[in-house]
Design a protein that fits this description.
Length: 394
């Protein structure tokens, strides 16, 4: 009868292990897909915006740098009584330069948008990403503590059968296991919390300086492009052929011609002043938008510094607690008695918990001290779920 019961328990254990593996693989697949989606959202957003502005600038450049056809039928400029037909092509230098300026402005706009998005995401999700990393490590630590607790429960049951432990010892460890399991489930939910995308690697100071520089460069390029509209130099080539009214004996054959045309808008100086005024207004607007982002950076930095100060203050206490528990565990390690076994089991779990708190505090401090880094893959973050067992007191 005892052998059948042992086989039954072994079968249940294998079923629980299989359930753990299946659930873990499912969560790994789901979370890896979710994380991959989060990684690509920002890149797709930047690529879509850059594609939009670059396509628009390319279309503008194609039109501006093209060769224009021309045709005219009417009186000759040199002889009002003569009618002639004129066909040809022209190439505008000013429009060509405007097309190139449009491409440069689009490139600057693309870089400015990408850097603004990266900085905004780093500010918005930096703290959340740090807490997720800490929760991920907490999941791994609690899983080890759960496994150790299960070992202690098995040993307590064995000692109870031999008369070296009581039912209260088993109950105490089982209740503690349930508390640790609740902490594990909470940490697992925090580690796999959706909505925290990849945090790009951003040097905050360099990003702020670069955004300010790109903002000014972009506006200067747009102004340069608009000022080119005030003047133009064009090369015109073609053929002209008299139709009627030409003097007797003159040739009626088509004749080639080439000319250099120049025009200048007399309001160009006033136009330039108005562009400068518009630039000042636009820069004020852009700086307001940038200042809001930079303010968020300052708020995040203050929060990080406050958290690091708290961690520096609490670290000696955590270290002292680990040392104390190590000493207490060492003092009862070689004692062979029912009371010593009971105390040793709880000290072992207390020490693992204190070491976990110590390790998590150091990890949080390290993550806050370093710039945002590219996140690990979802497979690295997700661990199988230990199934909550129903432990008997046998």
């Amino acid at each position: 009868m005892y052998g059948n019961e042992k086989k039954k328990k072994h079968k249940q254990k294998r079923q629980r292990e299989h359930s753990m593996k299946t659930t873990g693989m499912f969560l790994i697949a789901v979370c890896a897909a979710s994380f991959a989606h989060g990684q690509t959202v920002a890149e797709r957003e930047k690529q879509a915006y850059c594609q939009y502005v670059m396509d628009g600038a390319a279309a503008e450049k194609t039109l501006a740098t093209g060769v224009q056809g021309l045709g005219r039928f009417g009186q000759s400029d040199s002889n009002p009584t003569e009618k002639q037909a004129v066909v040809g092509v022209s190439k505008s230098l000013s429009k060509h330069l405007q097309g190139n300026a449009a491409m440069r402005a689009a490139e600057l706009d693309c870089r400015l948008y990408a850097q603004t998005v990266d900085l905004g995401r780093a500010v918005k999700y930096r703290m959340a990403a740090v807490e997720r990393d800490v929760a991920t490590q907490r999941v791994q630590d609690l899983q080890r503590i759960l496994q150790t607790t299960d070992e202690e429960i098995v040993q307590a049951n064995a000692r109870k059968r031999s008369g070296n432990a009581t039912l209260a010892d088993v109950v105490s460890l089982t209740q503690r296991r349930q508390q640790i399991y609740s902490q594990y489930m909470s940490a697992r939910d925090d580690a796999n919390k959706p909505g925290i995308p990849e945090v790009p690697s951003v040097d905050m100071d360099a990003a702020i300086q670069s955004i300010e520089t790109l903002t000014l460069d972009l506006q200067d390029e747009l102004n340069r492009k608009q000022k080119l509209q005030a003047w133009d130099v064009s090369v015109v080539v073609g053929m002209q052929k008299p139709i009627s009214g030409q003097p007797s004996g003159s040739s009626t054959n088509a004749r080639p011609f080439a000319s250099l045309a120049f025009n200048y808008n007399l309001n160009a100086i006033d136009y330039g002043r108005k562009l400068e005024a518009a630039t000042a207004s636009m820069m004020a607007l852009r700086r307001e938008q940038n200042d809001e982002l930079f303010h968020q950076v300052d708020v995040m930095r203050k929060a990080i510094e406050e958290t690091r100060n708290l961690l520096r203050t609490s670290q000696p206490t955590l270290d002292a607690e680990v040392n104390r528990l190590n000493e207490e565990l060492a003092s009862v390690r070689d004692i062979d008695s029912a009371e010593a076994w009971r105390v040793r089991a709880h000290l072992r779990l207390n020490l693992m918990t204190a070491e976990m708190d110590q390790r998590l505090a150091r990890l949080r401090a390290e993550r806050l001290a370093e710039p945002p880094v590219r996140e690990r893959s979802g497979v690295d973050r997700v661990t199988p779920i230990p199934v909550q067992p129903v432990l008997g007191f046998n």
